[in-house]
Amino acid sequence: MPKAPTIKAVLLPRANADGRHSVYLRITKHSKQHYISLDFSVLKGHFNNKSSLDKPEWISKKHPLATMYNELIKKKLIEMETLRHDKELSSIQIKNKVNGIQETGSFNAFWLEFAIEQGKLVSIHSEAKHRAEANKLSEFNKDVKFSQINYDFVKKYETFLLTINKRSTTNKSLSFFKQAVTEAIRRKKIARDQNPFDDFKIKKVEVTSRAKEGVLNIEQITVLKSLNLLSGTHRFHSRNFFLVQLYAAGARVGEILQLKTADIKEDRLFYNMEKKKSESPKKKCIVMIPELKEIIMQYYDPNKKYVFPYLEKVPEPDYTKSKEEIRKQEIFYHDRVRASTSMISKFLREVCTLAGIEQHVSTHTARHTVAHILDNAGIDIKEIQKHLGHENSKQTKTYLDNGKPVVVDETAQVFGNCLRIA
Hints:
Number of helices: 16
Number of strands: 6
Mean pLDDT: 82
């Protein structure tokens, strides 16, 4: 038979900076306790913890606001009497009802709805990331109740994430989870004082290890380029794709995936830089240095839409359709871009193993590598920022701080001179 909870006015043991103690209502059921703040504090000597509804004198008459505070406590306890006798409610559910928290549905479904909103308000990329992370949570627990989300839950989820991802990826997953929790709090689905991230801190990853992992030196790039790979294979395409990213001033993977044959004009590449949804797209124009032109011309076919073959059969969104249909098409297109990115990185790592490169390498490594080559060639950080399309130089600096030194030689200087925006 379920047992009714007990509800009592208490002082928090730890005093505030002014020596007063905050007054809370404590809800206890099955040894689990939850607290509701009454938004006032008193000195320890002004509180009587033996008071009750029959004798409502929790705050001593010595306190100038005793009558008002006692009435407040009494009113809250009377309001909670009905909830207290609903034996099916847990202590946290009683607390949420008192605080007006709407605990309907699951957190999993809420997160997916939040992901869709991100697609409409921010970008399809943001929606895709949130959808992927929401699905990851469902692998851990398919039906997460809002009341379940506490410090212990986040710790268990972190442990689960670390079994399938490295620490840096786990941190990103927890950051997305934190965004969704923050939104649930804003919408009053989770109590503000129930926020697990008040106590749970996402562990920092040392910049040194992160930076060393994703930077290649000139010798490694030369070995990569000289590998004899069978033409037309995934390894062949992935190697060439990575080299194009390097020679195109550290272009983002999405920019090269969507590079069209129409973007090649004489000795220049013209393409849209990836930006937030709220910003107008910016065209980037770069001179094709000989190394870049050599690879591009291997793929150039005026009868094909894209330079690289990955998206050739993927239809672009049709913006004459309804908003809902456009959104579906954008999601499908973006998912194909993500899938292609993963495939390129997978085969690129195989190629790097053949080249004797031990670092963890992905398509994003190209951007870190270009940043280091330009920095070591003496290029100003503001110019490097412009090359990489960063919003500020602080972001560029994270690419450079404490990274593995890149050999500064004649090739690096050529790179620095040629990777320029016209």
